[in-house]
Write a structure and sequence with these properties.
binds NADP nicotinamide-adenine-dinucleotide phosphate; 7 helices; 22% strand; 9-stranded mixed β-sheet; Dihydrofolate Reductase, subunit A; alpha/beta
């Protein structure tokens, strides 16, 4: 398939469930299953992957990251493309989604665009387990900080996003531990995966979804393929829906 034939602005999504927004995870991975190279995702995806990542964002009210991704790569919901911003404005949406980050430590470098660029809205979800004074320090940087109860941070953040920000869809752009936590709690509806034609190797395993303990058969989440789009870049653009029923043995 020619690059120009893949256009993620044309995608359609189901309605959100009643009690939370519709949640979609998007990741890029090497053909040997690595999502981190030299500490970030950079070098895995092509220019086409970057374009499709931005096109996917147009459908979402909020783009969310875990704090380790924030520290490694930054968290920004910008589209970096006037045509895509126009696409949203025409549909009565703000030019960029809201950027959201989830953190327990509150260790979020202040020089990141999230704090310095006011062209998009942003919110910090801070665990109630955070050390004293962290909330005040983060608030002093001019972004709202919402305390979310320890152990329920992700689900409470999603409920807040739906109820208070009026969001229908959340795009989670990693990393693996936030992805893993969400999928284990049944809070993921779809998974977009760019399979890059590259072997990253190394002796670290950086899967796209992680949680404590070894992988087990009982822990497997079953996916249903929605699309598989090969591109001339050698990438395969995959879209899955999470199956709700228990998998067969
Ligand atoms: N290939 C890709 O598509 C892709 C995409 C995104 C990221 N990445 C890479 O993935 C790496 C980071 O992934 P990661 O798995 O190490 O980390 P991550 O999921 O990005 O972030 C984990 C951190 O998020 C916070 N967090 C997660 N769940 C939370 C909860 N329930 N309540 C409060 N805070 C919570 C905690 O922050 P604190 O530590 O602050 O407490 C936790 O340490 C980076 O190297 C990044 O570049 C790759």
């Amino acid at each position: 398939m020619d690059h120009s034939e893949i256009d993620y602005t044309q995608l359609r999504f189901s309605d959100p469930p009643r009690a939370r927004p519709y949640v979609v995870v998007n990741m890029v991975m090497s053909a040997d299953g690595q999502t981190v190279v030299d500490g970030t995702e950079r070098g895995l995806g092509s220019a086409l992957d970057q374009r499709l990542m931005r096109e996917l964002r147009v459908h979402f009210d909020v783009v969310m990251n875990g704090a380790a991704t924030f520290r490694a790569s930054g968290t920004s919901a910008r589209l970096n493309d006037p045509a895509l911003e126009h696409w949203r404005l025409e549909r009565g949406l703000p030019p960029s989604p809201v950027a959201a980050v989830l953190t327990r430590s509150g260790n979020l470098p202040p020089q990141r665009r999230f704090f310095t660029d006011r062209s998009f809205e942003a919110i910090v979800y801070l665990s109630s387990a955070a050390p004293d004074g962290v909330r005040e320090e983060l608030e002093s940087r001019g972004r709202p900080v919402l305390i979310v109860p320890e152990g329920e941070e992700a689900s409470v953040a999603l409920r807040h996003i739906q109820a208070e920000l009026g969001a229908r869809r959340v795009l989670v752009e990693g990393g693996a531990s936030l992805n893993g936590e969400l999928i284990r709690q049944g809070l993921v509806d779809e998974y977009f995966l760019t399979l890059a034609p590259r072997i990253a190797g190394g002796d670290a395993s950086t899967a796209a979804f992680t949680w404590p303990g070894p992988p087990t058969r009982s822990g497997i989440k079953q996916l249903e393929l929605i699309h598989a789009l090969p591109a001339q870049s050698g990438e395969l653009f995959l879209r899955y829906r999470l199956q709700r029923a228990a998998p067969a043995d």
